[in-house]
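Schema walk-through. Below, the input block comes first and the output block second. Nothing else is stored per chain. Lengths vary across the set, and this one has 147 residues.
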Amino acid sequence: MRVISRRKLREFWSKHGDAQTGLLLWYQRTTDAQWQNLADVRRVFPFDAIIDQPNITQDDKDYLEVLGTLVYDYEQKHEPMPVLEGIELLKALMGEENLQPCDLISIFEDESTIAEVLDKKQELTAKQIQKLGDFFQLSPIRFLASE
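--- output ---
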C-alpha cells in the first residue's frame, strides 16, 4: 500500500530528526500490512488515545494527518463510494429537491421529452446536459452516463 511518498518522509525527518525512526517503522508497517478493515488499522495505530487528550501536540497532529491519509487510501481501495451519474443522478436530484418533470421544462422544452429521458428511451443532448449542470449547480459531466 502506498500512502505517502518516501521523498516526503525523508523531507519531514530531515526537519524533525527525532521522527526518522518512527517514520521508518511506520513505513515498514504500512508497506507490509495486510489489513482487512479499519479495526485492523486501529490495532496497529491506536489513535483514539490521542484524540481523547485535552491538548494535542504538533507531533500528534502530524501523526493523525498521516494516519488519516492511510485510512483514506484504504477506503478508496476497499470501500469505494458509488457514484450517481447520468439519469440516475437526475432522478436523485429531482427527488431530493421535490421537483416534478414540469419543473424542468426550461431544460427539456416539454414533459414528453422529460419522460422519455427519465425512462431512458431518449439520451440527453449536449445542450440539456449543460443546462442541467447550470440548473443543479453541478459539473455537466456528472450527467454523462459511463455505461
